[in-house]
Structure formats: structure tokens, C-alpha cells
Amino acid sequence: MYQYWLRFFGLLRKHLFGGFVLLIMLIIGNLGALASPYFLKVIIDKVFGEGDFQLLIQIVFSLLGLYVLRVGANFYADYLYTKISNKITQELTEKLFSHMLKLPMFYFKVNSVGSLVYKINNEVSQVRRAFTGSIISMINSIITIVGLTVLMVLLNLELFIIICLLYPLLILITKYFTPSIKTIIENTRKEESDFLAFLTERFSNVKFIKLFYSHEYEGFLMKNRINRIIDLNLKSTILTSGSNNLSVLLLAFIPLVVLVYGGKQVLESIITVGTLIAFLQYANKLHEPFRNIVSLYVDLVKTSVSIKRIYDVLDEPIDLESASDELIEMGEICEIKFEDVSFAFNDKQVLNKINVIFEAGKKYALVGKSGSGKSTLIDLLCKLIKEDSGSILVNNIRLNEIKTKHWIEKLAVCSQDYFILNGTLYDNLHYGNSSVNKSEIDAILDQMGLSSDDSDTFSSKTLGETGSTISGGQRQKIAIARALLRNPEILIIDEATSELDSLSEQKVFEYINNQPTIRLVIIISHRLSSIQFADEIILLDEGKASEVNSIKEHISMKGGFYKLFKNQLVNSEVARDM
Ligand SMILES: Nc1ncnc2c1ncn2[C@@H]1O[C@H](COP(=O)(O)OP(=O)(O)OP(=O)(O)O)[C@@H](O)[C@H]1O
Ligand SMILES: [Mg+2]
């Protein structure tokens, strides 16, 4: 755990000067507050004891000066720690977010959106709260305790030793409770993060819940989750409050012990009344910082859990794309070759030593049963996942050696799970295409039939989360328009025309056919109408690319393709022409 804290404090490196000034301000602010009991002793013993009025005036002015200094120091410390803590947490958020985006696709397949949001939002907030609250209070408390210790030792060593005998007990109490508190906090975090994941999933699929009329069942699931969180919170409160209150009880003994032992010394004229009163005041002041440390300790344990969860993500190895700076940039694409490429999800062998060649200037259709690995093959081609064995060669260069940024610029993918921003149509089309101008956008909208689909308001209204305010076909048209605006060399359409009416689909393919900059098109579809533009059809079956032919060859062979499309072929023009 300590190594996580060390790494976290490593973030302070950039703010060393500010941190140093902050420490000085905190020292001034805290030690200034400790001066008054000492002055009280001097007033009782010297001013009243010896009748020195001049000294009283000097003390009053000193106290006034000290007060002004403390206020100034406290104010500047507040400003500084807010600034430093915000900068550090902002840096941490940025670091976490950009690291997460670089993680392999697989990470996102096994971690829910809610748990990722929780990490960026709640865990980082806990760290920020700790910074602006507990860490600073901890430093304040430590400074106060050190100051009090020095002052009490100077006032009366014997009384101080008596106090010290009680403190090890405090440490023992805290140590006894900590491991259980830590486990409960870890469990609570996990439960809360799952809870957020549950909510995100439910609200993203509310239509499904309505269609299954499963409100009651969802309410039951929610209730169970809430009960588990309440249970954990109660356990945590019992432990933290138990340890806090035991410590408070122990701390309450200290001034009483000082009163008895010190009172006896005053009666025996070993110490003055002023010394006893000042010592008692210091002993009472110890109460607060010690109590703070005990309760802040729990908060710091919570923060430790957050820091660990944050660094666990930061320690996840990032994607192959960032592996090296010495990757190759390449020219125009002539050929993409899959050589004995295999890929498995856990134990499931999806692609098994597959061999396929895509040549520039051609349009390919990738077909196969659901789950045959079509989208997986495209993910490999887009460097979203990495092959287990074999190699993907682009112009005879291994894909892994090509700079991802450079490679992705050549591609445009309309995938099955395309992304619609909760922004306007223009925001969506500009995403990743910042250099395109309005006339290019208008031209493509016209081509996609989007301008005629909709009134003027369509272009200015927001499309809702995941495009919830527009139709499925409109969403697909936007996704295709956005892909085409990239001016790609390779265009991949993975089931992204499935919701278009046949006329719109035909217009889209005609447009694609007339784009001279597109050198290679790969279409994945279960619909014959979508693949009939293809020059070659690749059939994926049992992890292999079993047939690579033109559509007519496929039909005459009466192989896997024919079986797959048999029903659709009955009324198709292609089949009739044969
Ligand atoms: N994250 C994952 N974890 C485990 N298995 C997965 C994962 N993603 C996909 N698979 C499995 O990999 C296989 C291939 O999936 P893929 O999405 O490539 O199929 P597909 O040919 O595109 O199917 P469809 O036509 O239905 O889109 C499927 O059997 C699927 O269950
Ligand atoms: Mg698919």
C-alpha cells in the first residue's frame, strides 16, 4: 500500500515549491494558535505575581501581531492547498482517462461502463476530498502535536511523561480496528461501483425493461443492492465509531490525570499555578488533533483504497499502438494479407489460422453465420485487438509495425455498434473530421438523403444519448456519412446498412462506388442486397475463410455461401440471371 502512496505523492513533484510554502503557512497558522496558554502563564506568574503592567501591554501587542500573522497564513494556506489539490486531482483524472482510452479493447469488454465511470468520478473525488480535507487536517494535527509536545516538555517534563504513557493505547486501538475497516471499505467500493454499473446498464436499456414489463423485478434487484450497501455502511460505522469513541474516552482521562498529579505539585510548591494552568490548556489542546488523527485515519484508509484502485488501472499495460515510437509510416495501400491468423476469446477459438487477401481496387463482402468471427476479423484489422499467432501484412509490412495513428487515418469503419454523440447532427459529423467544411457536409447529407429526411430543425437539435431521438436508419446514415467524410482509403461497413430501406442502401453503395479515393471496401452483411456490389465474397466458417469467390461462382458452387443465402437467393436478380 505504501508504494501507492509514494507514487501518489510523486505527483507533488511538480508542485514542490507551492507545497513547501504551504507547509510553512500551516506551521505558522498552527503554532501561532499555541502561543496563548504560554502567555497566560506569564501573565499569571509575572504580571500578577510581580505586578508588571508594562509586560502585560507587551504581551497584548504580541498576541495581536501573532493573531494577524495567523489569519494571513491560514488564508494563504487555504488558497494554496485548494490550488495544488485541484491541479493534482485534475492531472490524475487526465492521466487516468487518457490511459483508459489506450487500454486494449478487451479491457472494455470485461469492465462495465459504470465501473469505469466510478473510477474516474468517485475514486478521484475521494482523493480530492482527502487532499482538501483529511491530508491537510492530518498535517495540521501533526504540526499541532509536535508544537504541543515541545511546549509541554519545556513546561514540565514529568507531567509530559505521564501523558505519554497513555498514548500507546490509542495507537493500539487504531491498529486493532484498521484491517476490518479496510476490508469493509474495499467491499463497499466494489458494491458502489457495481451499483453505478447496474444503473448505467438499466437506463441504457430502459426500453427493454418496459417491453419485458420487468419494473418489479428491477425494483427487487435494486432493493437487494441497496440493502447490501446499507449493511456495509452500518458495519463500517460500527467499527469507525467504535474506534473513535474508545479513543475519545481514553483522551478524556488525560486532563484529569494532569490535574491530579500537577495539582499535587502546585500544593507542594514544585510548580507554579501558571505552569499548571498552561499545561492543562496544552493537554486539553492535545485532545483535538489526536481525535482528528484517529478519525482521519479511517478517511485515509478510504483514500488508500481509491489510490490503489486508480493505480491498478494505470498499471494495466496499454495497447500495442503505443508500444514503440519507431513504427513505420506507409504509403498507399495495395494489399492486406492475413497469414495463418488465429485469435481466441478465452478458450473460444474464433479465428483459426485464417488466410485471406484483400487487394486494393476491389470490394469485398465478408459473410458467415452469426458468431463466425467477422467483426473479430475487422477488430484485428483495426488494431483494436491483437492476433494470437500468424500475421497481418499491409503491403508486406506487419500491421503491428505500422503507426496506429497513421493506419487509422486510412480507415473508416461503420461498425455494428456505431457511436452517436449526444450533440447535433453537425457535432456528430465533425467528430474526428474537424477539417471538413460545411459544403462537404451538406453534399454528403444530400447524398445520404438526410437533408430531405428532415426539416431544418434536424440539423440544430441534439440527437439524444446514443441518438435516441432519431430513427435507426437515420443513425446508420449519420454513421456512414461520418465515415465517408474521413476520405478513407479503406472503408469497412459492418452490418451498418441493415436498418436502411433498400433505396437508401442502394444510393449509399452507388456513392461509395463513385469515390475514387476509396481503394478498398469491405462489407459485412447478412443481406444479399448489401453484398451484391462486391467483387469477391469471403465466407467465414469454423474459424476459417473457407471460400473466396465472386457471388456467381458461389451460387454455382452451391457450397456454404449458397446454404447461407439460399432463402434470399430465391427471389434475387443475381440468381435469376444465372
Ligand atoms: N468479449 C468477448 N468475450 C468472449 N467471446 C466473445 C467476445 N466478443 C465476441 N466473442 C465471441 O466471438 C465469436 C465471434 O464474434 P463476432 O462478433 O466476431 O461474430 P460475427 O461473425 O461478427 O457475428 P454477427 O454476424 O452476429 O455480428 C462469437 O462466438 C462471440 O461469442
Ligand atoms: Mg459482427
TrEMBL record:
It is a multi-pass membrane protein. GO terms for cellular component: plasma membrane. GO terms for molecular function: ABC-type oligopeptide transporter activity; ATP binding; ATP hydrolysis activity. This is ABC transporter ATP-binding protein. Residues 336-567 form the ABC transporter domain. It holds the Pfam family ABC_tran. The chain crosses the membrane at residues 20-43, 55-76, 130-153, 159-177, 238-260. It is found in: Cell membrane. Keywords: ATP-binding, Membrane, Nucleotide-binding, Transmembrane, Transmembrane helix. Residues 20-302 form the ABC transmembrane type-1 domain. It comes from Chryseotalea sanaruensis. SMART domains: AAA. Its main location: membrane.
